[in-house]
Design a protein that fits this description.
Mean pLDDT: 88
Helix content: under 10%
Oligomer: single chain
Strand order of the largest sheet: 1-2-5-23-26-29-32-35-38-41-44-47-50-52
Strand content: 35-45%
Number of strands: 61
Largest sheet: 14 strands, parallel
Number of helices: 5
Distance between the termini: 62 Å
């Protein structure tokens, strides 16, 4: 009987496949068209409305200002013939009228988020603030050119609503000049970030109604170190530079270049949260789409894929009462469901999260590049994993982030072959990879055999603070049942308080067990292993550190009584100095062992972990005679990072265009793209003319450049692999040569 059914089943499957259709969308089409290549739809939503299971929507080049609600599962949205397709959450702003002092206003009914973003020709412009952000850099508050100033916040008596803020360098403004604006600080414990509405300003002081709960409650964490830190003011009255904007009272305000009428410019504002919404369905594919000023919502979505795509400028500025992680306030790509995949994608530029995995199992993030995320830094993560089981993050690059690269608090997660660097740019007391039992101190998190292996985790610091600058590679607090092996972890160093750390375990008030750290190389750290046995109620069982090279300068937190319960075997900690006698070139991240050094043939065999080249395993992440595997994403970030230029055929006056370009070149701005770079040429974007100097990570000047090539490149082929600083007259940019 089965043999008789098979031919019929095959015919049925072929018939289903033959029913699938291709539809086409073009910005020059009409939704009343047939949806063919010769007669395409105008909107992606029209195609989404008619797609059936198995169908494909091909999208021709253009900018589509839509929130596409997917109506059917097992459908594909793809760029046609590799066209550059942008789905934008921004809409064009028109009908500008002069407000005052070269500032124009236009009607703006508001966005779906608390604030918006404004773009000129697709490029993000700065929200009006004091002090001015002159560089466009969003996560360097210690650089006074990036829109931060020294400030101090004060507590008050219980029940009193007003709070006082002192800016020592604030002067020259009339009384109540900043009334009605927003104060944002990075004060006290720099994960709370006090915010409030300004009710008055006079001289160097503001009066503020607190928004942040800790400030309202007079939390001691706000008022550490006398409340000193950094801060800024958002206000319409701070709109004093060309390219700045503000929104207020159903209007948006913008200051264009001198003598330019904004009605001749292409200006858009972020209005929508989502570019695509996928709810209660399976098998949806988004392929080759660039999402700008919006994000993706996948709710109760299974077996969906986002491929060869980018999501940039996900979330605008936000105010928060609480500082814990939030999926609704902090934005990001939202994923809830099983077996979803993000592959070959670029995710960048946001005040909030990058990816938020909320429940589900079997989700995969592969060969993606995430950077410049978490500008607000209040428990933001490049990848926040709340999924239940089987999350996989592999061969990804995770660059600059306000707080965490990867934060997980549930189930099994495998993190392998990734390149992670430059975390904690806007905070303290956290790290690159974190798992924690949070406030549930006595109940540890079961990581269910999670594997963290073959990653480069490196070059991270934190905000300078006279009290606590805790920054870690592995913040595995109050969790158990995981293996960490064959990772290269280096250059976690802090400035004032020596707090850069390899691994912190807690366990606080819980018992942690079955935690294995095998064959890792840890170098240029302040600390090795740190513990916090809160109230002397924690316990350790079967926690192993075997076959690790750990910089001898990295002390362990060995004063706690439970430190003796850690199992240390066959580790190497006798090297001193800069590592040159042990490694090929530690200063450039080449941690291959030199011949004849102590770690060779000094390890112990560990089933399914160690490899034997010469009969006995070596200590460290790289077996002598081998190289560390390639890690990180190999996507071409330039293909996404060359921001699209919005065009309008009515704006073709060459004199206007020339004036716009000249106005943009008045201030110096330099950035390196991509970053890390290959050891050939450094490509950069530049506004204005300036001299360049390159320093190594130790602060030594290694190259001076007085002239650069016409294609904005600098030859760095004579420099070793490693981390460098590109310094101009007004800005310093860190870059990495791989």
């Amino acid at each position: 009987m089965m043999k008789k059914l098979l031919p019929a089943l095959m015919i049925f499957m072929v018939s289903i496949n033959s029913w699938s259709k291709d539809y086409y969308v073009s910005i020059d089409g009409k939704d009343s068209n047939a949806g063919t290549l010769a007669s395409p739809f105008k909107t992606i939503q029209k195609a989404a409305n008619v797609l059936s299971s198995g169908d494909t929507c091909y999208i021709l080049e253009g900018i589509y200002r839509e929130n596409v609600i997917v109506k059917e599962g097992n459908v594909t949205f793809k760029n046609y013939n590799n066209d550059k397709v942008v789905v934008s959450g921004g809409d064009i702003v028109e009908n500008w009228t002069l407000y005052k002092d070269g500032i124009y206003s236009a009607p703006f009914p508001g966005a779906e988020t608390e604030y918006t973003m404004l773009f000129l020709d697709g490029k993000r412009q700065e929200m009006a603030r004091w002090p001015d952000n002159k560089t466009g850099e969003m996560m360097d508050p210690e650089d006074k050119n990036t829109g931060y100033e020294d400030c101090q916040v004060f507590q008050t008596k219980k029940g009193v609503t007003g709070r006082r803020v002192l800016f020592p360098n604030l002067s020259g403004f009339p009384t109540d000049f900043f009334k009605g604006g927003i104060f944002r600080g990075i004060n006290g414990k720099k994960w709370i970030n006090p915010m409030g509405t300004i009710t008055g300003s006079k001289g160097k002081e503001l009066t503020v109604d607190a928004i942040t709960q800790g400030w309202i409650d007079n939390s001691s964490k706000i008022y550490t170190d006398n409340g000193k830190g950094f801060g800024f003011i958002f206000h319409l009255n701070a709109l004093d530079r060309e390219g700045e904007w503000f929104q207020k009272d159903n209007k948006v305000y913008f200051k264009p270049a001198k003598d330019i009428n904004p009605n001749s410019l292409l200006i858009s504002t972020k209005n929508r949260k989502w570019a695509f919404q996928i709810k209660d369905m399976s098998g949806v594919i988004i392929d080759g789409i660039q999402i700008h000023a919006a994000s993706i919502e996948m709710k109760k979505a299974n077996n969906c894929q986002v491929l060869n795509s980018s999501v940039q400028y996900l979330w605008p500025f936000l105010t928060r009462a609480k500082y814990a992680v939030s999926k609704t306030e902090q934005g990001g790509i939202y994923v809830n469901g099983n077996n979803n995949t993000f592959k070959n994608c670029y995710i960048a530029h946001s005040w909030g999260h990058g990816l938020f995995l909320d429940g589900g199992s079997g989700n995969t993030i592969e060969n993606c590049h995430l950077e410049d995320l978490g500008w607000i830094a209040q428990f933001t993560s490049s990848i926040q994993n709340n999924a239940n089981e089987g999350t996989t993050i592999k061969r990804c690059t995770l660059g600059a982030t306000g707080r965490f690269h990867i934060r997980t608090n549930a189930g099994k997660i495998d993190i392998t072959y990734n390149d992670l660097y430059d975390c904690m740019k806007m905070g303290q007391d956290a790290g690159s990879i974190q798992c924690t039992n949070g406030g549930n101190w006595g109940v540890p998190v079961n990581m269910k055999g999670s594997e963290i292996a073959f990653n480069r985790i490196h070059d991270s610091n934190t905000l300078t603070d006279g009290n606590k600058e805790f920054v870690l590679a592995l913040y595995l607090e109050g969790c158990y049942n995981y293996t960490v092996h064959h990772n290269l972890i280096y250059n976690f160093k802090t400035d004032v308080v020596e707090d850069g750390t390899f691994a912190y375990l807690g366990p606080r008030q819980s018992k942690i067990q079955d935690c294995y750290f095998y064959n890792n190389t840890i170098w240029n750290m302040n600390w090795g292993v740190r513990l916090w046995n809160r109230d002397d109620k924690g316990a350790i069982e079967n926690v192993r550190f075997w076959n690790n090279i750990i910089d001898t300068k990295a002390n362990d937190d060995d004063e706690d009584r439970i430190y003796k319960d850690l199992n240390f075997q066959n580790n190497y900690r006798s090297e001193t100095g800069n590592g040159n006698s042990l490694f090929v070139e530690a200063s450039t991240g080449d941690y291959r062992l030199k011949a004849g050094t102590g770690p060779i043939d000094s390890g112990r065999n560990i089933d399914d972990i160690t490899t034997d080249v010469n009969g006995t395993p070596d200590i460290g992440a790289i077996e002598f005679g081998k190289t560390f595997p390639e890690v990180g994403s190999d996507i071409d970030v330039n293909s996404f990072n060359n921001e699209f230029v919005e065009t309008d055929p009515t704006l073709s006056n060459p004199d206007i265009i020339k004036t716009i370009e000249e106005s943009r070149s008045r201030s110096i701005y330099v950035d390196v793209m991509p970053n890390p770079i290959e050891k050939k040429k450094l490509h950069f974007t530049q506004k204005g003319n300036t001299n360049f100097e390159i320093y190594n990570i130790q602060g030594a000047l290694v190259k001076v450049i007085e002239t650069v090539a016409d294609d904005n490149t600098i030859d760095v082929s004579n420099l070793s692999l490693g981390v460098y600083l590109l310094k101009t007259d007004q800005r310093t940019v860190k870059f990495i040569i791989e």
